[in-house]
Amino acid sequence: LAALGFLVAYVAGVAIVYRSGHRAEERLSRSELTGIREKEERSVAGYLTLSPGAIEPLAFHVGLVSAIYGLTYLVVVGLTTGLEAIGLAQETPIVWSFHFILANLLALLVRRLLKTAGTVNVLDDGLLDRLTGLTADYLIAASLMAISLSIAWRYAMPIVVLAVGGSLITYGALRFVTSRVFHHLRFERFIGIFGEMTGTISSGLALIRILDPEYRSPVAQDLVLSSGIALGLGFPLLIAINLPFTQFDGQTGGFLVLLGLLAAYFCVAMTAWWLFHRRSTET
Asked: Is 224 exposed, middle or buried (0-12, 13-18, 19+ CB in 10 A)?
């Protein structure tokens, strides 16, 4: 089912983008259609912010990104160790699944520290954009390669029914919500969230890249940061979902408790939504 989610994200997502007219062929240049830029269309990939005689600028940027990722690994290990210490070992996979959010926050912190120290000029946005494009392409390829067609074929019928039904509901719900929440770059935000909901955050970023190849708009950054907020709000819910098995040994009473918690969570979420919508309308 998760494998089909990736297929929905990439196949249906790309189809939605092109059928929407946001990337209609008559609006695309020849270089965008072929993928090859002519000599006069080529742009600068990045600038040398450091002397190559001292250190290769690209090596510096790769090393900095790697260091942040290494720091992210240490933070995640610390968080999972803490969860295991308090008896929540079953929640550790969630932390690993959302490690990219911590990496993004740490990257923002490092940039802020460099700016405070007056050395932020050693960073070149062009080189960082190229590194983003490089890792995004490999991430997309790895996601597709992870799909196990043999397992999907074994349970084809129920998986297809669930996938089609879930995809249609997700599409309709997101169309409804995004049309009422967002007023700027509405479609870009919709397609990014659609990719994330049917696949992963990388799927959403890949779909956004079709509309914004250079990630110039704030949509991609907003998608990553909002995932962090969603993780914070949804973490109690993720813990509650496991309660029938971790605290009630799969008994019916545990599911009734879970149902009550979900109902309470829904009421709180709808109340918060109503207050936010009313405040937005007033302003």
From this structure: buried
